[in-house]
Amino acid sequence: MKIKKLYFTLVWGILFVMPSYANELMKKGIYKDSKTGLMWMRCSIGQKWNGKTCTGEATTLKWKAAMEYPKKFNRKVTFGGYKDWRLPTIAELSSIRFCSDGWGKDGHKVEIPNGHKATLELPAECTGSYQIPTINQTVFPRTAEYFYWSSTPSQYDQSKIWAVYFSSGSAATRTHSYEQHLRLVRDGK
After folding, report:
1. What is the 3-state secondary structure (H, E, C) of 51-85?
2. Where are the domains positioned within the chain?
3. Would you call 41 helix, strand, or coil by DSSP?
């Protein structure tokens, strides 16, 4: 039996074990989530991956432009060898929230859309003493401490779109005319 190389990373007291394939993706600026299978750009749109971290400033766009951005991006760029990057759903974007001090013990939850007529109940936001931004900063360096768009409109008000606020880890709806940050994702086939 052949043993593959494994890489270990310690982040906020949690030991992450990554196979060599995942480590190679990380070096290219891509994170493959072993729980969801999704592949994420480690940098926000507007930033550049230099092989070690994200450089530059994250761009903000209104939601309509944010929804169009991946099509234009995929026509111009092959990032990491892929041309199928997209804006994440709110359930996907919420999956990368991270509360370094754990989620609130008050039990306050938020229901977010999770596919056609389904919902997912998540902790509402980080409480207590926690790192800001509320994301694994080793995996996603220099993430802006502000809202990031999802592709999910509110089912109650079409002028509002779901977003994650990486200052507190909360998921909330925002008016589509606001400018927010973007992080792209792809299915990790």
Report:
1. CCCEECCCCCECHHHHHHHHHHHHHHCCECCECCC
2. 6-187
3. strand
Looking at the predicted structure, is the pLDDT value of residue 54 above 60?
A: yes
- Overall average pLDDT of the 29-42 stretch: 94
Q: Is pLDDT above 80 for 135?
A: yes
Q: Which of 175, 162, 187 is nearest to 89 (CA)?
A: 162
**Alpha carbon distance 60, 46 (integer Å):** 8
Name 22's Cβ contacts closer than 8 Å, sequence gap at least 6: 7, 32, 34
Burial of 86 (0-12, 13-18, 19+ CB in 10 A): middle
SS3 97: strand
Residue range 137-186, pLDDT digits in tens: 999 999 999 999 999 999 889 899 999 999 999 999 999 999 999 999 99
3-state secondary structure 3-40: CCCEEEEEECCEEEEEEHHHHHHHHCCEEECCCCCEEE
Instruction: Write out the two tokens for 35.
Output: 């729980």
Residue whose structure tokens are 């994702």 = 185
Structure confidence at residue 128 (pLDDT): 81
Provide, for the chain, the percentages of residues in helix, strand and coil under a 3-state DSSP scheme, each rounded to the nearest 5.
15, 35, 50
Q: Are the C-beta atoms of 57 and 181 separated by less than 8 Å? A: no
